[in-house]
Amino acid sequence: MPGTKESRRKSRRPWLDRHLSDPYVQQAQRDGYRSRAAYKLLEIDRKDRLLRRGQRVVDLGAAPGGWSQVAHDLVGPAGQVIAMDLLPMDPIPGVDFLQGDFREADDYARLQQLLGGALAHLVLSDMAPNLSGMQAVDQPRMSNLVELAAEFADLVLQPGGALLVKAFHGEGFDGVLKRLRTGYAAVAVRKPAASRPESREVYLVAKGRRTS
Question: Residues with catalytic annotation?
Fold first, then answer.
């Protein structure tokens, strides 16, 4: 249709302008982080002290790699960061990357091979669904991703380990909280400053994984 490409370009322009003028985007460029999301993890970690030297960390939905960069810096050379995503990701020195789906047996086996039979100290998940703009569609998709991350953490986390997972406020959120509170000693809700105010996203910090 005539003008369709032009109208799409115009509709994207306000988002692009806001993105390029975002102070966190500008700071990420100066600091060498791949995304503004790095500052969300840094703020949460300052409060909750999730990342420590020598830890084994699995980062789900890792691309483009901002969280993996932060995790690698904080666990140090004695630690291990395994990043996993359906999308490709440019290499990060010192980070093991797997392109695949942790729900698939072959991809999960590759992850276990990298862990070498050990359990992780921390699972990170900044996963989000492809947004439709309709809350009735996006909310259950997000809740499902939280559940998948929690199920994955049940398999790979050591006792006392922690999970940091993105969620959306809305229908089903209380159920997500209840699910995590049954499996962890403490669960907190965080809204870091780098999370845009209009966004419904929050981060759930679940610490002290229970084994029974």
Answer: 166
Angle 71-204-149 (CA atoms, 0-180°, nearest 5)? 75
* Orientation of helix 23-31 relative to helix 4-21, angle to 10°: 70
Helix-, strand-, coil-residue percentages of the chain, each rounded to 5: 45, 25, 35
Which tens digit of pLDDT belongs to each residue from 76-120?
A: 999 999 999 999 999 999 999 999 999 999 999 999 999 999 999
Tell me the domain boundaries of the chain.
Answer: 1-32, 37-209
Weakest mean pLDDT among 24-38, 52-66, 126-140: 126-140
Report CA-CA distances (Å) from 141 to 151, 155, 161, 192: 15, 22, 26, 22
- 3 state DSSP class of 82: strand
Read off the tokens for 121: 């100290």
Cβ atoms 91, 107 nearer than 8 A = no
Q: Which long-range contacts (CB under 8 A, 24 or more apart) does 87-93 make?
A: 87/63, 88/63, 89/62, 89/63, 89/64, 89/65, 90/34, 90/64, 90/65, 92/65, 92/68
Q: Where is average pLDDT lowest: 6-10, 37-41, 72-76?
A: 6-10
Q: Does domain 37-209 have CATH number 3.40.50.150?
A: yes
Token digits of residue 12:
């994207």
